[in-house]
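Reminder to self: tokens first, then the designed residues, so the page reads top to bottom the way the pipeline ran.
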């Protein structure tokens, strides 16, 4: 009977993995109905953070556990020393926890390395030269254009001390607060 349970876990886990991969590839990609911090992706799981990543309760991690439990169970059931379900089940559960934990760790590492924060890049712009493309009125907001990493960007800007700056004038970015750039004329 324990062999049947292990086999069902293995097959259900593999079938679920294949079906989610197939349907996710051909029918996925929508971001409607977001769940917590999952960004609308079921593979991320449901948690309450708004940060991208993978939850320990994601279908991917749960399926890894079920599949590994079945696979380890079959292996341990076939070994004479671990044939008893009182030995094979705990060993299978341990193997499944280690496997699911490894999958979770690997996916989190992948997400961490592929997610980049624009905050650090924006902070590095202080001291960068830019040009006024929309005049900055006295104590008002205009627009600058700057180049970083080979790409041209624009941003709302104010003159540091509230002075007006005409269009086309070169400026230096002196500080950034939120999305507002503060500049001084060169």
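Designed residues (186 positions):
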């Amino acid at each position: 009977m324990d062999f049947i349970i292990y086999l069902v876990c293995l097959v259900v886990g593999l079938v679920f993995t294949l079906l989610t991969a197939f349907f996710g590839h051909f029918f996925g990609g929508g971001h409607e109905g977001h769940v917590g911090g999952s960004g609308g992706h079921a593979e991320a799981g449901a948690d309450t953070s708004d940060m991208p990543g993978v939850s320990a309760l994601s279908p991917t991690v749960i399926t890894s556990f079920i599949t590994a439990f079945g696979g380890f169970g079959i292996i341990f059931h076939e070994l004479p020393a671990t044939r008893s379900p009182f030995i094979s089940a705990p060993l299978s559960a341990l193997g499944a926890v280690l496997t699911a934990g490894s999958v979770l760790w690997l996916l989190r590492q992948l997400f961490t390395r592929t997610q980049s924060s624009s905050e650090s890049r924006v902070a590095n712009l202080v001291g960068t030269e830019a040009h006024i493309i929309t005049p900055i009125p006295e104590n008002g907001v205009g627009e600058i254009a700057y180049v970083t990493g080979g790409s041209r960007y624009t941003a709302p800007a104010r003159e540091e001390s509230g002075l007006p700056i005409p269009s086309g004038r070169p400026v230096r970015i002196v500080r950034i607060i939120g999305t507002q750039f503060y500049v001084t004329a060169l």
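The mean pLDDT is 82.
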